[in-house]
Amino acid sequence: MTPASSDTGTYDLNGKLLVAMPSMGDARFERAVILLCAYSDKGAMGLILNKPSVDVRMSDVLDQLEIQPSESAAAMPVHFGGPVETGRGFVLHSSDYESSLHTLSVPGGFGMTATLDILEEIACDKGPDCALMMLGYAGWGPGQLENEIVKNGWLTTDANPKLVFSTPAKSKWSEAVRSLGIDPLGLSPTAGHA
Length: 194
Description:
Belongs to the UPF0301 (AlgH) family. This protein is α+β, with helices and mostly antiparallel strands. It has one domain: 3-Layer(aba) Sandwich (VC0467-like). The protein is built from six helices and ten strands.
């Protein structure tokens, strides 16, 4: 899928999904689905949507911050958002919530907040309708992501809240591939060029 062109003459990938091709050489991104939250000629930043942590729960994060969580907030999973700044937390959420401190609006009906107030509100069940807690993020320098796309490392597609928030993590990659009209079983780890 070809991304829409932005005013700067480059492709605008803000709010798009990156879907890792089977040939992805980096194990951290194997079968990854990433929502791009920021994209410009200075680089890109996104969050991996389908890699829940097996070791960390929201209760662990809130305990470390000395925030008493509700039962539902304590059970919320925490995801590996990417290999950059893995000790830093980000909440990807529905657009119904905006922090009084700072929320980055992400095209497609999403927001990203990395301030303590959203965790306090989630802990008492007053946060956004839909949210994913992430530790770390995926980042690319100028031209790096475009180069990876040209080398068939990633497919790009539109994001939708159902895929992002409601689809189980283990099914997100295949559902993202299907959204492009491609059978996931038909993807080859090697790509050809015309």
